[in-house]
Write the structure tokens for this entry.
Amino acid sequence: TAAKWFYEGIPRGASIPWGAWLIPLTWRLSLVGAVACFCYCIVAIFRKQWVENERLSFPLMKLPMNMADEEPRGFFTAGFMNQPVFWIGFAFAIFPIMWNMVGYFAPVFPTIPRDFGLIQLGRDFPSIETRFYPLIIGASYFVELEVSGSIIIYFLFLTFQLGMFRRFGFETGPLRADTSDFENWQGLGALFVLIPWGLWIARGHLRDVVRKAFTKDPTIDDTQEMLSYRSAIFGLILSAIFICAWCVASGMTVYVAFVFVALVILVWLGISKISIETGLISSRIIHAQFATYHIVGLTNMNAQSIVALALTYTWHRDLKTVLMAPMANATKLFDDVREDRGRMILAVAIAVVVVVGGSAYYAIASGYQTGAYNYGSIYAGSVQAVFDRGVGYIRDPFAMKRHLALWGLIGVAITVANMVLRYIYPAFPLHPIGLVSATSYPANRTIFSIFFAWFAKAAILRIGGISMYRKASPFFFGMMLGYFVGVGISFGVDMIWFPDDGHSLALY
């Protein structure tokens, strides 16, 4: 009855059966807590490596860091907001949103397009979208030129590969989607090289972390870190064990749970590295479930493992909401509160509790009030697809397909070759993270904006050098902030006048 009312709406006069949700929510929220703990411990361990040793760019943090850097000149405390160039960028981003908002009330009103058609390269070659996203342009301006340029080059290379393989009759799967076999498995192959290589580069730092955690070596100072290394290591181990145990309790065998959790961690680290180096805020790499099905092989899995793995899509699918990526970006801001890491831990804990608790309450309450089936694919098609996929895999199990292994090996080979060339020729212009970023979804929808930012930054540096680059920065801050404000206003308008039929401004 509780589930039926949730999807169809509660009868008049009845109350929401909160008691029926106690056990499922307890299990689910315990998993969320373990995931949050794991992610925080990981970023606490790697903060020094990413921020101080590798000095990664953290493009998404440029705006909040500059807003927090108060300059007592002009009306606004954030100095860049007092410059005219900021407001030009702000208007550049918010004006199309505000203009198109008139169309919410008058559908015949002309709108300003966000995309400019498709670039067709030929038969069997996927088209390239030309979409304009102020937020992506603003963030990409602060990405290193070699990184953004590498994303563009690898994206074009993938497009060429995909077209040629299709010409020769290879099975490539869906084109340019989060389920694209061709791009997903090349990205996974790149991750299998990129993440272990990153750990190898950080081996000295990780050695210090382990030594401090287990021997309390006084020569290693962790008092200025987000978490003591001892707490981070043991928190990491315990939370990983809990996540594996949770998967086993849900029906997976120990072997399947271990492979799945290992792939989940690999994907989380990959998305976090993409976020802090490239500024891509909406990235999906391969689904760890799909990779597990093929790596283990459905013929080697029992029905319980297949169903349990299918149900994990409820907490590991839409990877742009992964906790590790925003936590990784927050490591750049930790310098401002380093004197009191307790405040940082408390702030993260409060944020997780408020967001997760509030989301759970709203999702359940609104489901009973209006019927979750009315919310479209999230509660209808997507949920059914998970069960249908599991049933289909049980009825027709398969081993790993050879062409998927081929795509993965191509990703490994390209990434290894890139790293070798950078080692032999330090000036080699391509960065290995470009491949995995280009294979992430929705790169096809953001590549035009990335190219726009890359071209603008390259031209500015060539014409005016670093001085002009800094003078132009407020314009791109304005684009980012203007987009945020515009989306906020649009959301408010939808909440008041279109509560059941909102307007999407997202990337996809």
